[in-house]
Design goal:
CATH architecture of the largest domain in chain A: Orthogonal Bundle
Strand order of the largest sheet of chain A: 1-4-3-2
Shape of chain B: globular
CATH class of chain B: Alpha Beta
Strand order of the largest sheet of chain B: 1-2-3-4-5-6
CATH architecture of chain B: 2-Layer Sandwich
Number of helices of chain A: 22
Low-confidence stretches of chain B: none
Structural class of chain B: alpha/beta
Oligomer: heterodimer
Number of strands of chain A: 8
Strand content of chain A: 5-15%
Largest sheet of chain B: 6 strands, mixed
Number of domains of chain A: 4
Shape of chain A: elongated
Radius of gyration of chain B: 14 Å
CATH topology of chain B: Transcription Regulator spoIIAA
CATH topology of the largest domain in chain A: Hypothetical protein af1432
Largest interface: A-B, 19 and 19 residues
Distance between the termini of chain A: 112 Å
Largest sheet of chain A: 4 strands, antiparallel
Low-confidence stretches of chain A: none
Number of strands of chain B: 6
């Protein structure tokens, strides 16, 4: 409520004049004057005018405030609707009021801009369509004709990098003197559109490598294969040692191998070829219009390209199987079957080579990442062989046969232990100790995956103690494989007498004393005695 | 004595003066380019009617927006009704306003000032600006 004082202040001077005049009349100041009657009339009308004016001022202020508040409320709704609302009439010039989203979408103020200029794109057909539809909707009063025209408009248009959904609505005149208007509702659907494209992409592509997936190949076989695709060759490719790489380097590095392999395949093929991830570590390459000789050349390129993929934990190794069909006589699935059989045959031949390469990679990883002394294995190797001979183990026995592999692989599980735990200077926490103990099991799995089953068992038991207090299974005495008992003694001696990144070397005497102390506790007492009395002395 | 009826337009209210029913209705919004020109025929018809010393007149007003010139015209109309009331005509006026909009009630109260005939301010739910 507007207060009276404010009104009084606003018309202070006028009210003083009026009150003075009323007082003078009441006091009879102009009694007898010939102008008295006229003066009284002027004072009365002035009073009336002042009363009207004061009240009208107030009403006007209230209504103006009310209008502005309503305008603000409506604008708030429109500006926060997340959609662009604009109107235009027959002159196609956009009206002054529009929602804020229009500015966000177009990047400038759109009032007084011609709607056709605003929506103009390189698509001339679309530009013409807009002009025709707007004209038809604004000139017709027939709802059916208007709707028919509106339906011709595209639902989504592209403007620079944005996708806009558009909706046109005719606004019929409210009053006779109103001009017909059109409202255009614009919504930026770029994110949604991209998500839909992504869904479409993912349904026919492998997310990890970006190559086509099996669904795409199935669809291609059903819908797109033509006689022109023959001779048709296929290459079935398998990434060797992926499981082992996942175990050794972790799945992130394993994924890098898959991505690198995908890249090598794309680099070795043509744009018209279909390169797909068939599943897991298998890839299928369809080569339309390619005979056997051309297919072999592509296979050579694949093998060569694998050698040159940089930044991977180990060199890519691939097994390939090829098959060619000259005419569309047989089922294409038979062709896939032939290629697959040939691929498995290639894989079998390469398996030893792949295992060897991976073990080399792990050794390199241990030395570079975990500062493992490259000579540790050699020294342990020499002493263990001597100890085995001192123990009179016969040549050709299972233990000696596997000794060399055990020496190479006995620390392999450390590759799966975080560097911070492996090189920690202070005592390990319970949790860290738990993680540390996992290296026996990791080493066991790695050795198993390259079919070194005896060595795998020996690695698993390397941290078992003669008295049953070791890990992971708490084996004791003869339950612990001989291979493990031999290596455990020599490994401990070598570790104690050489510098480690986290600990200085102890003297030979201290190490001998420690072995004596642990004889019958951690280590096999007989073998320890033999090592101290014979192997070390010689 | 003739009745008077103006359809509502975007800028002018519906005017329905019915001699037989002895009613005058103003409904809509009022911001004509020339308010006096618009309301002059209404004044004339009402003045004529009131000059016949009728027994009564009932006035219903519902104006969602009244510009400054129109406010002056409405006050002149109220003045005429006040004079008639003082002459003994039974004048009753209902001023309807949007109950959700306090400022409309305030405006009505301003029009009500200095009026001695029955002038009821009736807040009601707004049904729509032009109905």
């Amino acid at each position: 409520m507007m207060d009276r004082d404010f009104q009084r202040q606003l018309f202070e001077k006028e009210l003083q004049v009026l009150e003075k005049a009323l007082l003078e009349l009441a006091e009879g100041k102009y009694a007898g004057s010939e102008f008295l009657a006229e003066y009284q009339s002027i004072v009365t009308q002035y009073e009336r005018l002042l009363t009207f004016t004061r009240r009208i001022f107030k009403i006007s202020d209230i209504q103006a405030g009310n209008l502005l508040r309503r305008e603000n409320e409506i604008k708030n709704i429109l500006d926060n609707a997340g959609q662009g609302f604009l109107t235009f009439g027959r002159d196609l010039i956009i009206d002054r009021e529009y929602s804020l989203e229009c500015e966000k979408i177009f990047g400038f103020k759109v009032n007084r801009v011609n709607i056709l200029d605003l929506l103009k794109s390189e698509n001339e057909e679309q530009n013409t369509l807009f002009a025709e539809v707007f004209k038809s909707v604004l000139e017709s009063t027939d709802l059916e004709i208007q709707q028919k025209s509106i339906h011709k408009l595209p639902k989504i248009i592209k403007r620079e990098d944005h996708y806009l959904s558009i909706e046109l609505k005719p606004i019929p005149p409210n009053y006779e003197d109103d001009n017909p208007l059109c409202m255009l509702i614009l919504t930026d659907v770029t994110e949604k559109h991209k998500a839909q494209e992504q869904v479409a992409f993912l349904s026919f592509h492998d997310k990890l490598t970006g190559l086509h997936n099996r669904a795409f190949v199935d669809n291609w076989i059903e819908e797109f294969r033509t006689e022109g695709d023959f001779p048709l060759s296929v290459i079935m490719a398998d990434l060797n040692g992926l499981k082992l790489a996942n175990d050794v380097f972790g799945h992130i590095q394993g994924d890098m191998l898959l991505k690198g392999f995908g890249k090598a395949l794309l680099q070795s093929t043509r744009r018209s070829d279909i390169v797909s991830r068939w599943g897991g570590d298998e890839f299928l390459i369809l080569l339309p219009g390619t005979d056997r000789l051309a297919c072999e050349k592509i296979a050579e390129r694949i093998t060569e390209s694998c050698k040159h993929q940089a930044g991977l934990p180990t060199e890519l190794s691939v097994s390939l199987g090829m098959a060619t069909q000259e005419e569309p006589t047989k089922s294409i699935l038979d062709l896939f079957g032939i290629a697959e059989t040939r691929m498995y045959s290639d894989k079998l031949q390469k398996s030893k080579q792949v295992q060897h390469r991976l073990i080399l990679s792990v050794e390199r990883e241990l030395q570079t990442k975990f500062f493992e002394d490259p000579e540790h294995a050699e020294r342990v190797g020499r002493l263990v062989v001597n100890l085995a001979q001192d123990a009179e183990l016969s040549a050709g026995s299972l233990v000696l046969d596997n000794l060399n592999m055990m020496i190479r692989l006995h620390d392999i599980g450390k590759v799966g232990i975080p560097k911070e735990i492996l090189g920690k200077h202070t005592e390990l926490t319970n949790r860290e100790w738990e993680i540390m103990q996992r290296h026996s099991e990791i080493g066991f799995r790695l050795a198993q995956s390259i079919n070194e089953l005896v060595v795998a068992e020996a690695i698993l038991a390397l941290r078992e103690h003669w008295d049953g207090t070791g890990y992971p299974r708490g084996l004791k005495g003869d339950q612990i494989p001989l291979l493990s008992r031999l290596v455990a003694i020599v490994d401990a001696f070598d570790v104690m007498t050489h510098n480690r990144p986290y600990r200085l070397a102890r003297s030979r005497e201290e190490a001998i004393s420690e072995l004596k102390k642990e004889r019958g506790r951690q280590f096999d007492p007989k073998l320890t005695e033999l090592f101290l009395a014979k192997t070390l002395v010689s | 004595m003739e009745s008077l009826f103006f359809e509502a337009t975007k800028a002018t209210p519906l005017i329905d003066f019915n001699v037989n029913k002895k009613t005058l209705v103003l409904k809509g919004q009022s911001y004509p380019e020339n308010a006096f020109k618009f309301y002059d025929p209404v004044f004339l018809r009402i003045e004529n009617y009131l000059s016949t010393s009728p027994a009564e007149i009932r006035v219903d007003i519902r104006l969602s927006y009244v510009n400054t010139s129109s406010s002056k015209c409405i006050m002149m109309l109220l003045e005429k009704l006040e004079e008639a009331f003082k002459r003994g005509v039974n004048v009753q006026l209902n001023w309807y306003c949007d109950m959700e909009n306090e400022s409309e009630v305030e405006c009505a109260e301003e029009f009500q000032e200095d009026i001695s005939f029955p002038f009821k301010i009736i807040p009601e739910l707004e049904k729509g600006s032009n109905d």
